[in-house]
Structures are given as C-alpha cells and as structure tokens.
Specification:
The chain is of the alpha/beta class. The protein has two domains: about 210 residues, Spore Coat Polysaccharide Biosynthesis Protein SpsA, Chain A (Alpha-Beta Complex); about 90 residues, Serine Threonine Protein Phosphatase 5, Tetratricopeptide repeat (Alpha Horseshoe), CATH 1.25.40. It is built from 13 helices and eight strands. The protein has an eight-stranded mixed β-sheet, sandwiched between helices. α8 runs parallel beside α9, α9 runs antiparallel to α11 and α12 runs antiparallel to α13.
C-alpha cells in the first residue's frame, strides 16, 4: 500500500502466539487494500514477537509492559495513521470482505462515526444460533437503527466487527484503562451517546471461544458490567430517562444476584450475602431475590 492508509487495524495481544498467525493471515487476505496493521504486544512472554516478525514490514510491532487490553488498544490507536480504526482480537478471524463492508458503509454515510456488524462462532453454533447477534435482531438493528436500549439490554457490540472514526475515538477518551473485560461496552456507550452509530446485517468476523478468553472471568465481568452502567448514568444523565429506572434496576439487580450465586459457590458467604442484599435493595418486590436472601442468610450465617 502506498500513501496514507484509510484504515488502521489495531491488534492488542498477550500470550496468544498460538492463535496470532491465523488472525493475521485473515487480516492480510482482505479484499480491501488501503489499510495498515499495528500489533501491540502487551508484555507477552511467548513467541508473539517472532510470529509478527515473520510478516516483515507489512505489520508494525509495538511492545509495552503488561498494562491490560485497554491500554494496549489505546497505544495502538496513538500509533495509527488512518482516519478509521478497526480493533481486532488476536484470537479471532476476519472474513475477507470485513474492511470492504465496513469502510464502504462509512464512506457512503459521512455522518456515521461508528459502524458495526455481526459475527459467527468459529466452532459452530452457540446458544442455539449461528450468529452472535440473533438473525431477527440483526435485521431489526439494520432496518430501524441502533438505540441505547439495544446496547443496554444485551451487549451486542463486538469491536472485532466494528469500524470507528479515530477522531471520535480520541474525543471520547478511547478505552477506559481501568477496565479489562467490559471496555468495549463502555466505549460503545460513550460513542453512541455522542455520535451516530450504525449497524449492518452482515457477518464480518469469526469469534473463537477458548479457555484463554478473558471474558470467562465471571466475577470480574459482572463487577465491571455494574461499574460501566453506573458510569453511563453518571456521565450521561439523559441515559436514565432513555432507559427508565426500572430497566436499569432490573439489570443491576440481576448482575448482583449472579455475583451472589458465584460467590456462594466459591464459599464467599459474606460477600454473597452483600451481593444478594444489593439485588433486593434494587428490586424489593422480587420474591426470587428475597427467597435466596433468606435461604443464604440462614444457611450460611457462620460463613463470615
């Protein structure tokens, strides 16, 4: 590629050498050609550097001491030369038309500051469906547009399927470096509350599920999800009006309930009681939460 790229593909990675070559190959096989690739190595101790070196000057390699995926992505964006950013995970795969589809939409809709699409599961059907976003919902999002409630009810945005304006990414502050799992949801909230966001009913990436996925840390995922919701309401008071207090309370309560279940299973009885008490406070008329609160409180009073 000669001249300034139109898209910078940012791949943050940490000890994913076993998957990285396949990911990079899928990026390099794009039909769209006006892009650059930046790999940010977040302190890997495996053969990541050697894997990237194999591609020569087609890929820029940036190393940092381990600071987490959000910090690695922000560093990659700072090195980006293109006006559009495509953030990829180092264990997933792009379809050959990934950038062609997303950049084509962005070029034709100048007001759009983020566009995202759908993905499929690399290992086959998950949750009794082929695509990450169910087919019916995918068609509706493309037809009717993306609302805050769509992102809130279900974390539908996968940045592996997105293209983001670099200027808008910078303007909202990029990824929150205090988050390690729910950083994409947080960024999506901030972009949607500030700029037009669009959706395309197309599959543009393949998601690989494996034991190394950071999202499998259920406790941290739930805690961060709660923090992200609290941050949304704090920074954008209009979000509470758009979503409604009841919807917010239901989601927060359910996540507190899930926290309580996980903690109880791990023998963290005091922490479990604290979490279920939060769920009851948020939804005082929920018999389900009150039932579990009574059961856990009486059954594990010696737990701390």
């Amino acid at each position: 590629m000669d001249g300034t790229p139109k898209v910078s593909v940012i791949i943050a990675t940490f000890n994913r050498a076993a998957f990285l070559s396949e990911t990079l190959d899928s990026v390099m096989r794009q039909k769209f050609e006006e892009f650059e690739v930046i790999v940010v190595d977040d302190g890997s101790t495996d053969d990541t550097k050697e894997v990237v070196r194999h591609y020569g000057d087609r890929i820029r390699y940036v190393f940092q001491e381990n600071r987490g995926p959000s910090a690695a992505r922000n560093l990659g964006v700072r090195h980006a030369r293109a006006p559009w950013i495509a953030i990829q995970d180092s264990d997933d795969l792009c379809t050959p038309d990934h950038l062609e589809v997303l950049y084509g939409y962005a070029r034709e809709h100048s007001g759009c500051r983020m566009v995202f699409a759908n993905g499929v599961y690399l290992g086959g059907r998950e949750h009794n469906r082929e695509t990450i976003i169910p087919a019916g919902k995918s068609r509706r999002l493309a037809r009717e547009g993306v609302r805050l409630v769509d992102l809130f009810e279900k974390s539908i945005v996968r940045l592996q399927a997105a293209l983001i304006s670099k200027s808008s990414y910078d303007a909202v502050g990029g990824h929150d470096e205090n988050l390690r799992i729910c950083m994409d949801l947080d960024l999506s909230f901030r972009l949607l509350m500030n700029y037009p966001v669009a959706y395309i009913d197309r599959v543009v990436f393949l998601y690989r599920k494996h034991e190394g996925n950071i999202g499998r840390n259920e406790e941290l995922r739930l805690l961060e999800n709660i923090r992200v919701i609290e941050k949304l309401i704090r920074e954008f008071p209009q979000a509470e009006k758009q979503l409604g207090c009841g919807r917010i309370a239901r989601r927060m309560a359910y996540r507190s309930y899930r926290l309580a279940k996980g903690r109880r299973k791990r023998g963290q009885h005091r922490e479990a009681r604290e979490a279920i008490a939060t769920a009851v406070f948020l939804r005082p008329y929920s018999l389900k939460y009150r039932f579990f609160q009574l059961g856990w409180g009486s059954g594990h009073s010696r737990g701390g």
